[in-house]
């Protein structure tokens, strides 16, 4: 949880929010402020959400936020839909913090999804309105526009991710222009060099012809390759056409009127069953589910008293059902026993029919999807596409053979299923006739006994009891889940309160400690700034002195070398004037010794002065290094305070570092 809060605070302090929060400030926000922050993040994703929640009703706020989060595919944890909405109304941290963490992790992707949802989320038009021609045409135009938007958006994304940009194109153009200038200069240099060669015009003409012939050779090679590709494609088309002709001939061989009529009859029976039995049942079940869900959604939130009342009612109804079952078992009518067998057989046949109809519908959907994909590939393909080569063609042929074998097996299974379907249909018809006969006998017996309509009433009661049992099981499971959820939430709230109590106590003491340390920090900061200013002035003065001494030392070295070289030159001149008879006279030697002694005396004085000032200079350098360490320590403390959000500990560590230094 702490890592989650750190991430949320870091992201809210960045662009474009700039909230300047720390962990303590963010954790102490009021519920209305927390809801406003959530609304600001949602407004960054979808600008339509940019409103002040104080000017909006809480129900409208919850409805607007839940609809946007549902559109953004936010998943609720532990199916807590009711507690989730209640947490949004009250601004609960346990609800809003996970939402903020999830949103701030993927802001760019959610922006894109919100933008696309404005155009891709289709309007729900009731089916009864679509029977109108104008409404139907308008809705089809709307769907075509949505598909066109998808295509254009996909092309735009491909262009964005293709790597081309105006800056890169401009750089390429400038680079190409530079290369062009370099090539022009190079050509001019080569022309100047070639002009001096004899017969250069004839040689240039021959070189031009050679280049043209090479280009022609390359174009002919390309044409040859294209013609080979076209020939290969023509051969492939020929093979496909031959295969299609073969398949059509085989299908035409079986296409006699009797087989075509039989196929059409089977298809009509299947479609009739789908339209009259299967699809109405599915539609009715969906409507019942929708009504049940609407009824559950419209009911208010239930408390413990309502739950207990419903449990008592469920127990009463269960006891009544058990009594009815016991009465039925005691009666044990032999006619009902005979009908039970037929009912079981009829239910088995109906289940098989439904399963086969579902398999048929899935196969039709798969076929329609494959045909649509094939059409798209044909529309996207061009005759100049890459041609399939030898090894790939072999693999494709092997794959097609395996698929052909699988297709034959499936076709054989389908024919067997059709045959079984015909047998089951005939069996169902026979059983229906028997059932009608038995039903007539049963009605006659009921008329004789004076209890007409008893069996229909009993079947209706059984059906109603089965439906009621199913609904009771669903309600029981729902009530158990809700009671378990309430218990879990209560225990979680108690745990959180007990866990937060010592932290809140510690937080109060830490706030008082922070105020004390803030005052101490201000005093230490003034002391540090005065000390740093003094050290800075001393450092600048020492640097100036060191610079002056270095310049003086360099000047003295230059003077020494200059005097030494001049003395040697004078001695050599005197020696040359005497014709090398007396290499060194006493006066020149004496002058040289005097100059050297003077230079040595000056150097000793300078050395003595440097030695005397060496200790003070080293002490000043040490103080400068200490100042640098102090500044680095201050920078580390500032970074540490930003990362941890704990100013008191940082000031204490900084004070310790200053005392140590």
For this structure, the CATH topology of the domain at 3-121 is: Actin-binding Protein, T-fimbrin, domain 1
Mean pLDDT: 77
The count of strands amounts to 0
**Main structural class:** mainly alpha
Rg of Cα set: 48 Å
Helicity, as a percent range? over 70%
Biggest β-sheet, characterized? none
The end-to-end span amounts to 39 Å
CATH class of the domain at 3-121: Mainly Alpha
Poorly predicted parts: 382-387, 579-584, 654-661
Subcellular location: Cytoplasm, Cytoskeleton, Cilium basal body
GO molecular function, one term: tubulin binding
Family: Belongs to the IFT81 family.
InterPro entries: IFT81, IFT81_CH, IFT81_N_sf
Q: What features would you describe in this structure?
A:
It is a single chain. With 661 residues, the protein is mainly alpha-helical. It has a domain at 3-121: Actin-binding Protein, T-fimbrin, domain 1. It is 86% helix and 0% strand. It has 17 helices and no strands. The chain has helices at 2-13, 23-27, 31-45, 58-71, 81-90, 93-105, 107-120, 133-161, 166-195, 200-253, 257-298, 304-331, 334-380, 390-449, 454-577, 586-644, 647-660. Helix 1 crosses helix 6 (93-105), helix 3 runs parallel beside helix 6 (93-105) and helix 15 packs parallel to helix 17 (647-660). The longest helix has 124 residues, at 454-577. The radius of gyration is 48 Å and the shape is flat. The two termini are 39 Å apart. Mean pLDDT is 77; it is low at 382-387, 579-584 and 654-661.
């Amino acid at each position: 949880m702490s890592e989650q809060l750190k991430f949320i605070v870091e992201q809210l302090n960045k662009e474009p929010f700039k909230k300047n929060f720390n962990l303590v400030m963010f954790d102490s926000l009021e519920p209305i402020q927390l809801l406003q922050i959530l609304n600001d993040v949602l407004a960054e994703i979808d600008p339509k959400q940019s409103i002040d929640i104080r000017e909006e009703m809480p129900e409208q706020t919850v409805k607007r936020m839940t609809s946007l989060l549902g559109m953004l595919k936010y998943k609720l944890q532990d199916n807590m839909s009711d507690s989730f909405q209640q947490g949004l109304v009250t601004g609960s941290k346990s609800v809003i913090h996970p939402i903020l963490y999830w949103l701030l992790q993927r802001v760019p992707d959610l922006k894109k999804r919100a933008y696309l949802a404005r155009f891709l989320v289709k309007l729900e038009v009731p089916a009864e309105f679509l029977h109108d021609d104008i409404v139907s045409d308008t809705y089809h135009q709307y769907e075509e526009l949505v598909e066109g938007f998808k295509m254009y958006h996909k092309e735009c994304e491909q262009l964005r991710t293709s790597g081309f940009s105006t800056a890169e194109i401009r750089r390429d153009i400038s680079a190409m222009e530079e290369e062009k200038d370099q090539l022009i200069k190079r050509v001019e240099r080569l022309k100047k060099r070639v002009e001096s060669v004899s017969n250069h015009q004839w040689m240039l003409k021959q070189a031009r012809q050679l280049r043209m012939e090479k280009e022609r050779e390359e174009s002919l090679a390309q044409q040859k390759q294209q013609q080979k590709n076209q020939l290969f494609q023509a051969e492939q088309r020929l093979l496909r056409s031959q295969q299609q002709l073969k398949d059509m001939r085989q299908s035409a061989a079986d296409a006699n009127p009797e087989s075509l009529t039989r196929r059409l009859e089977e298809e009509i029976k299947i479609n009739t069953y789908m339209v009259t039995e299967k699809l109405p049942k599915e539609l009715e079940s969906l409507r019942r589910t929708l009504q049940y869900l609407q009824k559950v959604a419209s009911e208010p939130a239930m408390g413990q008293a309502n739950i207990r009342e419903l449990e008592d009612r469920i127990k009463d109804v269960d006891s009544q059902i058990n009594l009815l079952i016991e009465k039925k078992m005691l009666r044990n009518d032999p006619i009902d026993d005979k009908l039970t067998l037929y009912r079981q057989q009829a239910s088995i046949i109906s289940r098989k029919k439904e399963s086969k109809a579902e398999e048929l519908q899935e196969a039709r959907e798969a076929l329609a999807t494959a045909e649509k994909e094939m059409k798209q590939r044909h529309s996207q393909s061009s005759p100049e596409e890459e041609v399939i080569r030898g090894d790939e063609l072999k693999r494709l042929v092997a794959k097609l053979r395996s698929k052909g074998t699988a297709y034959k097996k499936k076709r054989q299974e389908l024919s067997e299923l059709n045959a079984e379907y015909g047998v089951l249909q005939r069996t169902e018809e026979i059983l229906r006739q028997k059932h009608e006969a038995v039903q007539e006998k049963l009605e006659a017996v009921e008329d004789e006994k004076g209890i007409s309509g008893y069996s229909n009433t009993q079947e209706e009661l059984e059906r109603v009891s089965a439906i009621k049992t199913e609904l009771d099981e669903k309600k029981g499971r729902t009530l158990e889940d809700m009671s378990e959820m309430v218990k879990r939430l209560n225990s979680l709230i108690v745990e959180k309160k007990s866990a937060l109590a010592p932290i809140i106590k510690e937080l109060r003491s830490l706030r008082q400690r922070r105020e004390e340390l803030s005052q101490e920090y201000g005093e230490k900061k003034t002391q540090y700034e005065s000390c740093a200013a003094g050290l800075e002035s001393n450092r600048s003065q020492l640097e100036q002195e060191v610079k002056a001494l270095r310049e003086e030392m360099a000047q003295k070295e230059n003077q020494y070398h200059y005097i030494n070289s001049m003395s040697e030159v004078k001695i050599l001149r005197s020696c040359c004037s005497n014709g090398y008879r007396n290499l060194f006279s006493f006066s020149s030697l004496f002058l040289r010794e005097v100059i050297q002694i003077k230079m040595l005396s000056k150097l000793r004085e300078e050395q003595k002065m440097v030695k005397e000032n060496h200790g003070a200079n080293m002490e000043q350098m040490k103080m400068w290094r200490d100042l640098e360490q102090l500044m680095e320590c201050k920078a580390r403390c500032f970074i540490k305070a930003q990362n941890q959000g704990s100013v008191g500990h940082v000031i204490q560590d900084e004070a310790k570092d200053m005392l140590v230094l």
